Amino acid sequence: MIYEEVRSFYQCFGGKKCVIGYSCQGREIYAFHLGRETCAQFIAVYAVHAREWITARLALRHIKTGLQRGGGWVIPLLNPDGALISQTAYPLWKANARGVDLNCNFDADWGSGRLNTKIRGGENCMGDYPFSEAEASALRDFTLRIRPYVTLSFHTKGEEIYWEYGGKGDKNGAELLEKITGYTAKRIYGSAGGYKDWCIQKLNIPAYTIECGSDSLAHPIKKLGELKKCYKLLKIFIENYGKQA
Q: Is 189 helix (H, G, I), strand (E, B) or coil?
């Protein structure tokens, strides 16, 4: 199971690391530091959606690749409970174990998304109120503590990059991500309450969602090789974007 993979990696990791919080079922949410600590920091988060657990393996690859410039934090598996549900019971499950979609639970026009519902289930439930979920509140608190200059959220699938929310966002970073991956930068409409949205709207920092893997693939993607266009994404992006000097 992917949670065990990440936990084992954490136990063996010799660098700076921490547990940013716990899932609603009590599983650790691990974070790994890369690069320098004395510069402006990034946050990269993976496996927000349960069925997209393959991105946690992408995170481990990014950690192993490392950085030559810049520094920041990698959170490989924000939704460990949901990933277990996807891997063992309901493969297409996106939500956490309480049936809330974590990427609808952030305080950015919460509840206004086109598909948002209060009905618990495998996807689209926005929760009872912003940050009602342990995983979302843990990421909020960690983000407010680190105060990153940019955040990256890794999802699957579609080979697209989302960079804008409410008329705000930095397209320069999206264009860099396009060059690195060959993906297409797009504006999307009708969604709200995501981590990217909250970072842009409330923290006034650039934030990007990267939809890794071809849209022709079926959820859940099980082979990391399907995401090979993203293998060097974190390293190249951080070493070439913003305040990494």
A: coil
